[in-house]
Amino acid sequence: MNLFATLRAPRELLFGAGQRHALGAIAARLGRRALVVTDARLAEDADFLSLVGQMEAAGLKVMIDSSTLPDAPVNSAAASAEAARGFAPDVVVGVGGGSCLDMAKCVALLLTFGGRPQDYYGENVVPGPVMPLIAIPTTAGTGSEVTPVAVLSDAERSLKVGISSPYLIPTVSICDPELTLSCPPSLTAIAGADALTHAIEAFTAIRRDPVPGISQQRVFIGKNEMSDHFALRAIALLWQGLEAAPGRRRCRRT
Ligand SMILES: NC(=O)c1ccc[n+]([C@@H]2O[C@H](COP(=O)([O-])OP(=O)(O)OC[C@H]3O[C@@H](n4cnc5c(N)ncnc54)[C@H](O)[C@@H]3O)[C@@H](O)[C@H]2O)c1
Questions:
Q1: pTM to 2 decimals?
Q2: Does 226 share its domain with 162?
Q3: CA nearest 117: which of 77, 65, 170, 168?
Q4: CB atoms < 10 A from the CB of 129, how many?
Q5: Taking a C-beta distance cutoff of 8 angstroms, is the pair 104, 77 a contact?
Q6: Has residue 6 been placed in a domain?
Q7: Which pick of 65, 85, 158, 238 has the fewest CB atoms within 10 Å?
Q8: Of 30, 28, 87, 21, whose CA–CA distance to 56 is shortest?
Q9: DSSP state at residue 14
Q10: Is the pLDDT confidence value at 193 over 80?
């Protein structure tokens, strides 16, 4: 049996109720000027304002960009990077659902290397590490906080496009389930279905010949021992919780 496995992940992944309160200390380790990418709805949320407050209390200067639109249109990502250039951020923080996290990835990419999002479409086109990126998901389905992909919508091509590179994996991800409790039941259900689909896709993906260097040549390397482990665990947890989750009432520690 071939026990080939690989793990690409954030340098630090925090998971657990209340872990969002670690943001200030984490951000202060990575930079002094934080660009926070979110959407208009979340920008008014008390939890979001408290995250910003943590960074300010830790001594960071903060700029908020709440312009994320659903499915992160290419043009808005380019405009967002342009608008932030004068602020000269040295760390980007994405807070929100998959759209905000993908937008944050693309903005960090453009602030680091310049150009247009279109220059990086496809696999392994990103030339090197992007500036430090912190991902804080508020939905529990896309997995964008750990993936090497930014999914954008391109109106000119009438389709969704992907920028895929291990360099887009966030430096730190903070997954605090309490941030998802404000989701309406339909969003919780859709996100859960998204997570289940990802897990099944991962487990049923092709198994490739693990030639040396495969993880340097390909972004998507097929199933392996590590991805099987996480996929089966995810399917088991979703089996236990997906039906009940949308009905959960907001109930949390402060
Ligand atoms: N990068 C990846 O690996 C990857 C994988 C799968 C999907 N995606 C992308 O993710 C996007 C979808 O993300 P999504 O399903 O998280 O939705 P979303 O980010 O588009 O958000 C949908 C709506 O939910 C709201 N919302 C988010 N969190 C909330 C909360 N806690 N409480 C109340 N409302 C909240 C948002 O404000 C928004 O109005 C798509 O663009 C898809 O292409 C990316």
A1: 0.96
A2: no
A3: 77
A4: 15
A5: no
A6: no
A7: 158
A8: 28
A9: E
A10: yes
d(CA 160, CA 214) in angstroms, rounded, equals 26
What pLDDT does residue 246 have? Answer: 86
Give 168-192 pLDDT, tens digit per residue: 999 999 999 999 999 999 999 999 9
Cα separations in angstroms, 204 against 81, 91, 201, 227, 228: 37, 36, 5, 10, 9
**Chain CA centroid to CA 46, Å:** 21
**Same domain? 48 vs 157:** yes
With a Cβ cut-off of 6 Å, ligand 1 is lined by: 39, 41-42, 70-72, 96-100, 102, 138-139, 141-144, 147, 149-151, 160, 179-180, 182-183, 187, 191
Asked whether residue 76 is domain-assigned, the answer is: yes
Which residue range is the domain that position 199 belongs to? 185-247
Residue type, 48: F
Q: Which pair of tokens denotes residue 230?
A: 């996480």
pLDDT grade for 119, boundaries at 50, 70 and 90: very high
Write the residue with the smallest CA distance to atom 25 of ligand 1: 97
CA 222 to centroid of chain Cα atoms = 21
The predicted pLDDT at position 252 comes to: 55
pLDDT for 104 equals 98
* Residue 5 belongs to some domain of the structure: no
* Candidate of 20, 38, 41 to mutate for ligand 1, largest count of ligand atoms within 8 Å of Cβ: 41
| 99 CA → ligand 1 middle, Å | 5
Tell me: do 39 and 149 sit in the same domain.
yes
Same domain, 63 and 149: yes
Dig out the tokens for 245 from the structure.
């989750």
Q: Does some domain include residue 172?
A: yes
Quick one: average pLDDT of 20-40?
98
User: Which of ligand 1's atoms lies nearest the C-alpha of 160?
Assistant: 43
pLDDT, position 247: 81
